[in-house]
Structure formats: structure tokens, C-alpha cells
TrEMBL record:
Organism domain of life: Eukaryota
Organism: Eleusine coracana subsp. coracana
UniProt name for this protein: Uncharacterized protein
Region (Disordered): 1-53
Bias kind Low complexity: ranges: 8-43
One GO term (biological process): shoot system development
InterPro entries found in the cross-reference section: BPS1_pln (IPR004320)
Pfam hit, one: BPS1
Length: 320
């Protein structure tokens, strides 16, 4: 009896590559029962179990390489976050690729015996919850900025003070979400272990990709939440040019100066300062609008990923 071989990734080749390899397979028909994507490095071992290779097998399914590319892109953005919209786009693209992976029957079969399915479901649920809370905070922040703009236009100091307090509260909530997301990005927190004695190589590969995707998403989420928290804090504490001085105090001082100086010069100064404040807040408002749209897409993609994983898990439960 020939030893049994655990599959690394037994996903079928793409149609073009499958057709190009058909001639070779005809000459080796007695070996067709072995998956075409078994790693060459695994075939020389004497044991039945094979360790997971660090690199993808050269003939593995193209979706896997596509998914690894998106994981690297998300991790790269999290390490050097620049544009908020680009970070959201990277996370959205990653979860679109995850959806393609979970649609494959081979991936679903690999998850059939996965002991970590519940932990995966919990991890993606936490991410979806975090982004749901993030959306709520962004909506509130958007309203706070609108209130601050209205207060400046009307020279309403009390309303401006209230909106700035609300902004600081939103910033604290965003900082809390960032801390929670950062905790979720730690491998020890995810707790996924592949390659155990009862785990097939295909299971290790698929579960590993899902775990890496969850960790990358958590890292990017922490970076994203931190950026918006810092943006909110900056807008509330330094909305005017007076260093370490609340905008309310500056506005009140400006009104006092207006009563003691000439009418024309004070009006010009007041208008100039008000225009500068409004410009700063309007820029923030535009950024939040862009963020609001992108965060909604990411939230929906996270929910779709978890639903796809839950469908696989439910199918497994009903068939065992």
C-alpha cells in the first residue's frame, strides 16, 4: 500500500492551466487519484503527515495568491497608514477575496474538520461589531462638526463649547475601539493553531489564511480608528490658531477686542478668524464624509465574510 498524502491545497487548477497539463496527466493516469497541487517538497517524506510550506505551491489555486497579496497590502497600510480611504479600500478588497475563497467547495471541505471554526466566527463577529461602533462614532462626529460650523457662523459660544465636548467624547470612544482592535490583532488572542496531529494540510492552509486575514484586518482597524481619534482630538483642541487654547476662549476674546478697537479692524479680524475656523472644520467634514462612505462598505464586507463562514459552519453541522 502506498502511504496516504495529506493535501496542502487541493484546489483545482485554473481552466487554462488544467488544459495545459492534460497531456502529462494522460501518461500518468494511474496516479490521477493524487491531487495535482501537492507540494513537491512533501512527496519525498516517509510519513503520512506533511508540514505546511511557508510559500504557496507553484500550481495552487490563483485565489490563494490573490488573497495573500491583499493580506500583504492591508498589513503594509497598517504599518504606514496614510490615506484613510485607501486603508478602507484595502480592507474591503481583502474581504472580497475572502468571499471568493469561502465560495470554493475545496475550502469548505477543508473547514469541515476545523476545530477552530467557532474561534474564527467569534473573531469576525468582533471585527464587525467594532466597525459597527466605529460607524456610529463617525456619524456622531459628523454631526458635532456640523454643529461647530453652525456655532461659528452664528457666533454662538455655548453651542460651540457643547459641540467640542461631544467631539472629545467621540475621540475617546474611537481610542477605545482602537485599543480593542489592537488586542484582537495579537496572534495569542486569535489563538489559531494549525498543523495538529488531526489537522489536514488543507485545513491548516485555509484556517491559516482566515486567521491571517482577521489579524491583518484588526491591525488596519486599530490604525484607522487611531487616525480618526487623533483627527477628532485635533479639531476639538486646536480648531483655532491659538496653541493649547480652546476655540471658545479665542472666540470670546475676539468679541471683547471688537468692543474696544475700531469697528472696521475688529470686524475684519473677526471675519478672518471665523473663515479660518470654518475652513478647517469644512475640510474635516469632507474627510468624515469620505470616511463614512468607505466605512459602510467595510462593515458590510465584514458582515458578508462572517455570514459566508457561518453558512459553511452550519452546513458542516447539519451534515455530521
Amino acid at each position: 500500500m502506498a502511504p496516504s498524502f495529506a493535501r496542502s491545497i487541493s484546489f483545482p487548477l485554473s481552466p487554462s492551466r488544467s488544459s495545459s497539463s492534460s497531456n502529462t496527466n494522460n501518461n500518468n493516469s494511474k496516479h490521477q487519484s493524487r491531487p495535482s497541487s501537492i507540494m513537491a517538497s512533501s512527496s519525498s517524506g516517509g510519513g503520512g503527515g506533511h508540514a505546511r510550506s511557508v510559500s504557496l505551491p507553484c500550481r495552487s489555486h490563483p485565489i490563494l495568491a490573490h488573497l495573500h497579496m491583499h493580506i500583504r497590502a492591508v498589513r503594509g497600510w497598517a504599518q504606514d497608514p496614510t490615506s484613510v480611504s485607501s486603508g478602507l479600500a484595502h480592507v474591503d478588497a481583502l474581504h472580497a477575496a475572502l468571499g471568493e475563497l469561502l465560495d470554493l467547495p475545496e475550502a469548505q471541505a477543508a473547514l469541515a474538520g476545523a476545530a477552530s471554526s467557532d474561534r474564527l466566527l467569534d473573531s469576525f463577529l468582533r471585527l464587525a461589531d467594532a466597525h459597527g461602533s466605529f460607524q456610529e462614532a463617525v456619524v456622531e462626529l459628523k454631526q458635532d462638526v456640523a454643529d461647530a460650523l453652525a456655532a461659528i457662523r452664528r457666533h454662538d459660544a455655548a453651542r460651540l463649547a457643547s459641540s467640542l465636548r461631544a467631539q472629545r467624547k467621540a475621540g475617546k470612544e474611537l481610542a477605545r475601539l482602537a485599543t480593542a482592535a489592537r488586542e484582537g490583532a495579537r496572534p495569542s488572542r486569535l489563538g489559531f493553531l494549525g498543523g495538529g496531529g488531526t489537522s489536514s494540510a488543507a485545513e491548516v492552509e485555509v484556517v491559516g489564511l482566515l486567521a491571517e486575514s482577521a489579524a491583518a484586518t484588526a491591525s488596519a482597524s486599530a490604525a484607522l480608528f487611531n487616525i480618526v481619534a487623533a483627527m477628532s482630538a485635533s479639531a476639538s483642541a486646536e480648531v483655532c490658531s491659538c496653541k493649547r487654547t480652546a476655540a471658545l476662549v479665542c472666540l470670546l476674546n475676539l468679541n471683547k477686542k471688537a468692543s474696544s478697537s475700531s469697528s472696521s479692524s475688529s470686524d475684519e479680524q473677526k471675519e478672518t478668524t471665523s473663515m479660518a475656523l470654518m475652513e478647517r472644520l469644512e475640510e474635516l467634514q469632507e474627510c468624515i464624509q469620505e470616511l463614512d462612505t468607505g466605512s459602510d462598505k467595510v462593515f458590510r464586507s465584514l458582515v458578508q465574510t462572517r455570514v459566508a463562514l457561518l453558512n459553511v459552519h452550519t452546513h458542516i453541522v447539519f451534515h455530521f
